[in-house]
Amino acid sequence: MFDSTASNLTSQQSWVHLIQDHDAIRLLEITILPPYLNTCRWFAGKARQQSYFRIQFVHDIPFISGPETDEKAFLVILKVGYLDGETESYLLPLSFVELGQPDTPEILPKGIITGAVFNQKRGLVVDAIYDERFRGALYFNLVNQQVLLQKTGQLTFHRGRGLADDDSTGEVTSRVLPVDSSNSALVFSVPGQGEKYFLKLYRKLFQETNPEVELVSFLTEKSQFSHIPAYAGSVVWEQEGVPDVTLGMMQRMVENRHDSWNQTGDDLNDFLYAVPHRLFSIKEEVFDRVELLAKRTAQMHLALFNAEPDDSLFSPEPFTDDYREFIIQRFENLLERRYNLLIDNYTKLDPLAQRLAWVFMEAKEMIDEFVDDFRNRPLESLRIRIHGDYHLGQVLVTGTDFIIIDFEGEPESSISERKIKHSPLKDVAGAIRSYHYAVSAKLFGSVETAGIEPDHLQRVSERWFKLIRDTFMDAYLETIGSPHPLFKNSSEVNFLLLIYLLEKAVYELGYEINYRPAWVKIPLKGIMDVIREIEKIRIADPARDSELPRLQMGLLQPKKE
Ligand SMILES: Nc1ncnc2c1ncn2[C@@H]1O[C@H](COP(=O)(O)OP(=O)(O)O)[C@@H](O)[C@H]1O
Ligand SMILES: O=P(O)(O)O[C@H]1O[C@H](CO)[C@@H](O[C@H]2O[C@H](CO)[C@@H](O)[C@H](O)[C@H]2O)[C@H](O)[C@H]1O
């Protein structure tokens, strides 16, 4: 643990003049911040070879009350350079907590960056999210729609409809939500009303409005869809002639027991208790829940579809040649990166994963041919803005209903890619993949399945998945209604769903190789399922003049390991 009595940063200046002390800034950039960032879950550059950290911009956030000196935090925009590829920018709010004062706050060890002395005052430089004064200042600025002029541009605090008028006094207490994710989450309690607002500070920054703010504010302010936490405001860095940078977004806090991923895991445990007794039983309430989630998903898509025709950010669009080309290029690029990643990591995979990886590699030409079909196939369905990274972990369970969160899109894609309109079947594919993940996670070595014979487990799991998938699809399409311009006909639905299922599983393969190697089998198995479907289409259509040989699916028969 960090020794808070040691002082690693000493400056003759006071904290508020940090920026004028070039030696202190260099020490932060070279010695103090790099190791700190590498301990943070939200720093996505950990696995890359970092070449420099540069404090690029520093914005002031004055605290709300208190004496004039030392009473502000800095919003530091840190540029990180790498030996390979593009630089990244991260948001790091900094504040100084003087030690030995009657009101010195307790700072969690993970928030302490370094011990420091500023103008003979001894204290700690901390990630300001752990400093109540900073959190209070953010809330005050949001409720008062402040504009804070900075050396470069201004910080504008926007209010959203989800912020109640009577909460404008700014009297709140706050805490950091203890979730380790790609961003940081702060929660504000309003006196007498409990925890009411949830503020996400984005860590990796982009020179563009975050898609999450666009989607959540649209759904709150321009639609009737109420199964998201209402948009309550955002913090934006604005500069003349340059696109805005979104630094944070506030929503209503949602009381939740857990998310749909955990709930599905509990449902699966129930299901698995009966399996050793050769009973196949899924409770009715499980089907009810799957149907309800499908319905909420479809209602979200209908709300996004119903944008005003002149709202170019949201209005539906056809499958243009440009879009088709974009998808094909992106797919080919993704496939190449994944094949390389698999080759580099092949020897680290267990025997089943190696067999699955082998079939995937063998299927390359067939996949290419299938994806290529996207170029010319007549498609009259429509594309809209979608969630973009939809899975069961993005759905909070509230009593008997659901609330959908985290509209930031796929972490691996650029911000402009995340704003591209797709068929909503891409989100549907995300949900279906997630059910497949849930059952597969149990299948591959969980305590609940330890005593079940593998072949039997495989059979019942597949049956469970197909029933759940079909229940979801039926309820989803029924809610959308037929005919509907989003989906021209069932053959388009089937084709698009296969494309997005394949793309999602291939995307997941990279996520698992990088973060959870033991789960690499799960997306590989998902890829196999799509490959089987593609084979069926090829076989059923003798008119297709394909030279490609049949795949060696026999490799996938269970083997004693
Ligand atoms: N409005 C909300 N109310 C309550 N909890 C929330 C809310 N939004 C998110 N959370 C909780 O915070 C976690 C992180 O939020 P998420 O939007 O997924 O952040 P990230 O972009 O960092 O992945 C979620 O898994 C959920 O538990
Ligand atoms: O961090 P995010 O929520 O933005 O999403 C990333 O991490 C997810 C894992 O937490 C990952 O989702 C994959 O694993 C889930 C189970 O943990 C499963 O339900 C999803 O279907 C599967 O895609 C997601 O892909 C990644 O972008």
Condensed summary:
This protein is of the alpha+beta class and 561 residues long. It contains 13 helices and 19 strands. Residues 1-5 and 553-561 have low confidence and may be disordered.
Explain this structure to me?
It is a single chain. With 561 residues, this protein is an alpha+beta fold. The chain folds into three domains: 9-252, no CATH class; 254-318 and 383-487, Aminoglycoside phosphotransferase (APH), C-terminal lobe (Aminoglycoside 3'-phosphotransferase, Chain: A, domain 2, Alpha-Beta Complex); 320-378 and 489-541. The protein has 13 helices and 19 strands. The strands form four sheets. Strands 1, 2, 3, 4, 5, 6 and 12 form a seven-stranded mixed beta sheet that branches. A seven-stranded antiparallel beta sheet has the order 7-8-13-14-11-10-9. A three-stranded antiparallel beta sheet has the order 15-18-19. The protein is globular, with a radius of gyration of 26 Å. The two termini are 43 Å apart. It binds adenosine-5'-diphosphate and ligand LMANGFYV. Adenosine-5'-diphosphate binds next to strand 11.
**Which sheet architecture does the biggest sheet show?**
7 strands, mixed
What are the distinct ligands in this entry? adenosine-5'-diphosphate, the ligand O=P(O)(O)O[C@H]1O[C@H](CO)[C@@H](O[C@H]2O[C@H](CO)[C@@H](O)[C@H](O)[C@H]2O)[C@H](O)[C@H]1O
**Poorly predicted ranges:** 1-5, 553-561
First-to-last CA distance: 43 Å
Shape: globular
Helical content, roughly? Answer: 25-40%
Number of domains: 3
What fraction of the residues are assigned to beta strands by DSSP?
15-25%
Global Rg: 26 Å
Mean pLDDT: 92
Q: Tell me the number of strands.
A: 19
Question: Helices and strands: which structural class?
Answer: alpha+beta
Total number of helical segments?
Answer: 13
Catalytic activity: D-maltose + ATP = alpha-maltose 1-phosphate + ADP + H(+)
Protein name: Maltokinase
Keywords: ATP-binding, Nucleotide-binding, Transferase
Domain Maltokinase N-terminal cap: 36-131
